[in-house]
Amino acid sequence: MPWDEAMRISFECDDSLESYYNYLQTIRNITDHIGNLCRNKGFPIDELPQKLGQPKSTVIALVNSYIWITETRNVEIPTSAILSVWAELG
């Protein structure tokens, strides 16, 4: 998983090897959590790109995008109730 200055700052990392290792552990924990959410919804994490309409993406690319948006840009993911309203409007 790549990191840039914005991600390093967001995760309060310096440029040391230990810090990068801790960052990778954090990413692994986030990915494991997403995998658990997928399993709870009845599908393996490998199917996540297709479920999100991004069949050419990898899971790690989606996780990277999620982190970029939520951590470095401080964007909150809409609740399922808000997404339902959007879906009804579409």
Write the layout of secondary structure elements.
Elements: H1 5-10, H2 17-40, H3 48-51, H4 59-72, H5 80-89
Relevant terms:
90 residues; mainly alpha; 5 helices
Query: How does the overall form come out from the CA principal axes?
Result: globular
Fraction of residues in helix: 55-70%
From the N-terminal CA to the C-terminal CA, the straight-line distance is: 34 Å
Gyration radius, to the nearest Å? 15 Å
Quaternary structure annotation: single chain
What are the segments in which pLDDT stays under 50 over at least 5 consecutive residues? none
Q: How many strands in all?
A: 0
Order of helices and strands: HHHHH
What is the overall pLDDT average? 92
Number of domains: 1
Structural class: mainly alpha
**SS summary, helix count:** 5
Strand content: under 5%
Compose a concise summary of this entry.
This protein is mostly helical. It has 5 helices and no strands.
Molecular structure report:
This protein has 90 residues and is mainly alpha-helical. It starts with a helix and ends with a helix. The chain has helices at residues 5-10, 17-40, 48-51, 59-72, 80-89. It is 64% helix and 0% strand. It has one domain (5-89). It contains five helices and no strands.
